Structures are given as C-alpha cells and as structure tokens.
Prior knowledge:
Shape: globular
Oligomer: single chain
Radius of gyration: 22 Å
Amino acid sequence: MVTVTRKTAMAIKSYHSQAELLIKDYILSDPIIPYTSIIGGILVFKLVYDLTQLMSLFYFKSYSSLTKIQRTEWNNRGISTIHAIFIAAVSVYFVFLSDLYSDHQHTGVVTFRSSALSTFALGVSVGYFISDLAMICWLYPSLGGIEYVIHHSLSGVAVAYAMFSGEGQLYTFMVLISEVTTPEINLRWYLDTAGLKKSIAYLINGVVIFFGWLVARILVFFYMFYHVYLHYYQVKQMHIFGYLLVFGVPAVLAIMNLMWFGKIIKGLKKTLAKKQ
C-alpha cells in the first residue's frame, strides 16, 4: 500500500514537473507569448460570456424577460467588465508601481522596455479587442455605433503593435488605465435595463462615472502627453509607425473621451435635476 502511494506521489510529481516545463518552455516562451496570450484571452472571454449567461439566468429575474439582443449585450458587457478590471489593475501596476519603466531604476530607452508579463497582459487585451470588435461588427449597430468600431480598432492596433514590437508599452498601459471606467459604465446600463433608473444606486453610479472619467480618461491622458514631452528624445527613436501611434491614437481617443465626458455631464445634470 505504501509502495503504491509512493509511486502515485512520484507520478504526480513527474506530471507536475512536465507541466511546468511545458508552460515555461512553450506556452510562456518569449517568442510565442504574444500568440498564446491572444488565444488564451479569446478563450477566457468566451468562457466569461457563457458564465455570465448562466449566472444571469439563475440570479437575475429580469434577464429572462430581455430581448435576444439585450441578453447578448448583457453577456457582452460581462466580458468587457472582466477585461477592464484585469487590464486596469495591470496598467496601474506597470505605470505607478513597477520599476520596469522607472527612470531611477533602469537605464536605457523607456520606449523599448518590456517584459514577459507586460507582453502577456497586452496579448490578453488584444484577445479581448478582437472578440469584442468581432461581436460589434457582426451585430452592428446593436452593440454600438461607428464610434465603438473606431475606438476598438485604434485600441486593438496600438496594443497589438506594443505587444509584438515591445515598443511604447508604457504609453499603452497609460491609455489602458482608462478602462477603469468601463465597469461603472456597464453597471449603469445594467441598472437602466433592470428598470432601476430612478434608484439612488443609479444616481451614485453617475457621480462615480463623472469623477472616474475625469481622472482616468482626461487627467491621465494629460499626464501621458506630459511624459511623452519629457521623454521626447527617446520617443523619436521609435520606428515611424510606433511614433505615429504614440501621438495619433491617444489624441483621437482623448477627443472622443472629451466628447463623451460632455454627454456624461449633461446626463448627470438631468439626473440631479429630477432628484430635486
């Protein structure tokens, strides 16, 4: 009995070691991290979509009364919420907490710095943008108009370039911090769809969106452009395509953010006026 147990333990240990080698030497090997992370991201978000659908059927009574396209959007917003939480947390870590892009801890050009973890995180995000853009285009315009197509296309291209080339990853993470507002936007849609537009939760949500948007999608963008200004001698060493992305994509997204911010202010004013 003891012999069998030892053999079983040794077999488990052997399989564990082989699995670690497989992950280290193949799945997380530097040359193929971009591809495994993209595929992994797509598969994970497909799983999230299915789990959102399953959990909503059991825990939300209003879900079954929704139209087919509303249920699809409900599930799709579950994907965007999980992605937003993941990439916003990773982005805050790399921009403000990690030493990878620090001027004090590293020498060399900041626009060329990357790591296996930063590349993997960006790959997961690319997987999300591919999945979400495909759904938006397939069901266009039910899940969003042309502004969503432009936003996802620009974001996807910029993130993919940073991931594959290793260039400008710091600025990519700075822009991706803006995803911190996505869960609040999705929650607002859920509250509206569930018939809770007049609730106190809806009002609080509007206030949170206002301040979150101001910080993550406006002030952080100003910080990014200021950082580019201070490190312009390093930015101009990038390849021309990456150089154009650093200036072009954030500029377009910043304009879109300001336009949406105007709508948020108008919506918040309306909600506050009704409460009074």
